[in-house]
Write a structure and sequence with these properties.
single chain, 9 strands
């Protein structure tokens, strides 16, 4: 090897060494944000797990206390949480209020029956936060038009029972916004205007037993319900022509 070739190789080696050394800070700069990102994801996962575990524990404990107080609470198949709650056995107002103060912990509650109870508007606001509820029974309660607006966020609500309550025609447009409803009982409330209900695409059973006859506008609204299979009414509400119109519009409808 000549002296010039040797010098050339030496220069190449220096260049390679210099390049490698200069890339080290860059690699270190890249590693730092990657490590921080991994730590952030890990911390978020641990936080979620701890919060979820705490929520499940609170839900389980609330269910146990509610059952111990005498409420009719049915557990899920794995007996981990309350799936159905009925307060009919709670005759003591203090016990009822205490149970209602714990209902908000029942995140996976599906069915809630508060019929003939003294449930308040404030308590119903708490119930409305339970996003997994599919059925609420409020027959014979003091629930009114304003209370219905609390349910607007309950996207899974399929059954709503409001017989003998204090709702009026003013509540019907808000009820019509509950698009997932399949069963609706609004009987014995003096409601005469059902026009807004035609916006309920999945309603299969409508209960509107009243002493007041239906208007033609209400009949048209009922006839426009695409999924309706069953209509529960007072025989005095329908004229023969109105009954025929419904039967012609909805094939196979059961009018009882």
């Amino acid at each position: 090897m000549t002296e010039s070739e040797s010098q050339e190789n030496l220069n190449d080696a220096r260049t390679t060494s210099s390049s490698s050394a200069s890339s080290q800070p860059g690699r270190k700069r890249l590693r730092r944000p990657i490590l921080l990102a991994i730590l952030g994801i890990t911390f978020a996962a641990i936080s979620w797990y701890l919060a979820n575990a705490a929520s499940h524990e609170a839900e389980f404990n609330a269910g146990q206390r509610i059952r111990a107080m005498g409420a009719l609470a049915s557990m899920d198949a794995n007996r981990e949480y309350v799936a159905s709650l009925n307060t009919a056995t709670l005759k003591d107002p203090e016990k009822f209020n205490e149970v209602m103060s714990m209902v908000g912990e029942l995140k996976r509650l599906n069915i809630l029956d508060l019929s003939k109870s003294a449930v308040t508007s404030e308590q119903l606001q708490g119930v409305a936060q339970l996003s997994n509820i599919t059925s609420i029974q409020l027959n014979g309660t003091a629930v009114g038009d304003e209370d219905i607006r609390n349910f607007m966020g309950m996207s899974r609500l399929e059954s709503l029972y409001l017989a003998d309550s204090r709702i009026t025609d003013a509540a019907v447009p808000d009820i019509a916004k509950l698009k997932s409803l399949k069963i609706l009982d609004i009987s014995n409330n003096g409601i005469t205007d059902l026009a807004a209900l035609k916006a309920l695409p999945d309603l299969t059973w409508l209960v509107v037993a009243e002493d007041t006859p239906f208007s033609d506008q209400s009949i048209e609204a009922i006839a426009a319900l695409p999924a309706l299979q069953r209509l529960s009414v007072n025989p005095q509400q329908l004229s023969e022509s109105q009954r025929k119109k419904l039967e012609d519009a909805i094939q196979g409808i059961a009018i009882e």
